Amino acid sequence: MLKLSIASEGGHESGGMSEYISHHLTYLSNQVQGALFDINVLHLDTIFFSILCGLLFLIPFYLAARRSTAGVPGRFQAFVEMLVEFVEEQAKGMVHGKLTYIAPLALSVFVWVALMNAIDLLPVDLLPWIAHNVFHIDYLRPLPTADLNGTFGIAIGVLLLVFYYNIKIKGVGGFAHQWITAPFGNVKLSANPLTWVGFLLLAVVNILFTIIEYVGATFSHGMRLFGNMYAGELIFFLIAGLGGTATVLGIAMHLVMGSVWALFHILIVLLQAFIFMMLALVYIGQAHEHH
Amino acid sequence: MNLNATLFVQLAVFFVLSWVTMKFIWPPLITAIDERRKKIADGLASAEKADKSLAEAKANATQVLKEAHAQAGKIVEQANRRSNELVEEARGTALAEGQRLIADAREQVVLDSNRARAQLSKEVAAIAVSGASKLLGREIDARAHADLLDKLALEIERG
């Protein structure tokens, strides 16, 4: 926002804009990223806001749970119970098995992701401005779900749970059997050596497809949320850029488009959180199905 | 595409959050919900029961009312009949009494007229005797002429 005053000064509009955006897309990290995957790097902003949102979920919900009674509920308790019932219903529909852990997991994923997404509704420059002026931090990306680490961290967690439940429900043997028989099935072994060859070939193909299935599921799980939130964030930057031109038209467009996009984004914030939860339930539910 | 150790931190946060939710948040809430659901179900059931017993009571009341109506009708009818009977009876008694009174009166009249007639004939006889004595100029011995006098009296009586 402050930087954009440069943009309006002369003919460097595109340069100012791209600088503004790239500045906003830079993480607050402990060191510079060296490669696509760099184990030594931490995005402090993503971690901080993830944990903050986690606490914003846990503390009120814990208080509501501690005070919950079977009598007439208070408003907040009613709201929390509404969410609990909603999530439980979804979990029951998707997963046919014990829900002791899965339903709470779905609730925490839904509310946590929704809260993280909701950071996107704050003015794009507010938190970075506070970071700059109060804490003297130059870079800040407050939206954890617009960080691939943020979304893939959860998606991989769900994948681990899928493996866990597969083994828990089907046993190691059953799970291994699924790897070599799904999705194409396999031939029955007999004395005929041809069946041995066919079995091996189909096993390889099945294993390949199973790998693709799991990678694809996890990739689309993490990528869908990231893509939506990243794109939404970017559009907020562009709209803020309109206001940053400091012309009447620019400010008017900022006001109109910013309002419209923010309103629309409320839907996306909740919808993506819901989809993320539902996909987690679908994947875990599939782990419960016998092929 | 900056993948780094943040991913593992996020993974850990994910498991911590879901574990805490499972341990401390979900069970009390779901217990409260289920308990309240049971309470509501019980309340609805008892309301239904109350409705049913109300309907029963209403039907009962209608039945009782109907019976009472019937009984009241019967009583009124009985009373009417009884009153008619009483009226008839009274009328009969009154009629009989009247007739008896009339008969008595008649009898009395007959008696009175007989007595008056006897008196009269006696007086006429006396008058006749005194007249005859005046005519004859002497005392007539009533005892001596009793036969004659009686005959006379009888004649007057008839006459």
UniProtKB/TrEMBL annotation, chain A:
Residue spans crossing the bilayer: 47-65, 99-119, 148-167, 194-215, 235-256, 263-284
PROSITE patterns: ATPASE_A
Alphabetical GO biological process terms: proton motive force-driven plasma membrane ATP synthesis
InterPro entries: ATP_syn_F0_a_bact/chloroplast, ATP_synth_F0_asu, ATP_synth_F0_asu_AS, F0_ATP_A_sf
Topology relative to the membrane: Multi-pass membrane protein
CDD domains: ATP-synt_Fo_a_6
Role according to the record: Key component of the proton channel; it plays a direct role in the translocation of protons across the membrane.
Family: Belongs to the ATPase A chain family.
Official protein name in the record: ATP synthase subunit a
TrEMBL record, chain B:
GO cellular component terms given for this protein: endomembrane system; plasma membrane; proton-transporting ATP synthase complex
Stretches that traverse the bilayer: 6-26
Subcellular location: Cell membrane; Endomembrane system
InterPro entries: ATP_synth_B-like_membr_sf (IPR028987), ATP_synth_b/b'su_bac/chlpt (IPR002146), ATP_synth_F0_bsu_bac (IPR005864), ATP_synthase_B_chain (IPR050059)
Principal subcellular localisation of the protein: membrane
Keyword Transmembrane helix in record: yes
Pfam families attached to this UniProt entry: ATP-synt_B (PF00430)
Membrane topology: Single-pass membrane protein
GO molecular-function terms, A-Z: proton-transporting ATP synthase activity, rotational mechanism; proton-transporting ATPase activity, rotational mechanism
Described function: F(1)F(0) ATP synthase produces ATP from ADP in the presence of a proton or sodium gradient. F-type ATPases consist of two structural domains, F(1) containing the extramembraneous catalytic core and F(0) containing the membrane proton channel, linked together by a central stalk and a peripheral stalk. During catalysis, ATP synthesis in the catalytic domain of F(1) is coupled via a rotary mechanism of the central stalk subunits to proton translocation. Component of the F(0) channel, it forms part of the peripheral stalk, linking F(1) to F(0). The b'-subunit is a diverged and duplicated form of b found in plants and photosynthetic bacteria.
PANTHER family reported for this sequence: ATP SYNTHASE SUBUNIT B, ATP SYNTHASE SUBUNIT B', CHLOROPLASTIC
Subunit field text: F-type ATPases have 2 components, F(1) - the catalytic core - and F(0) - the membrane proton channel. F(1) has five subunits: alpha(3), beta(3), gamma(1), delta(1), epsilon(1). F(0) has four main subunits: a(1), b(2) and c(10-14). The alpha and beta chains form an alternating ring which encloses part of the gamma chain. F(1) is attached to F(0) by a central stalk formed by the gamma and epsilon chains, while a peripheral stalk is formed by the delta and b chains.
UniProt protein name: ATP synthase subunit b
Organism: Povalibacter uvarum
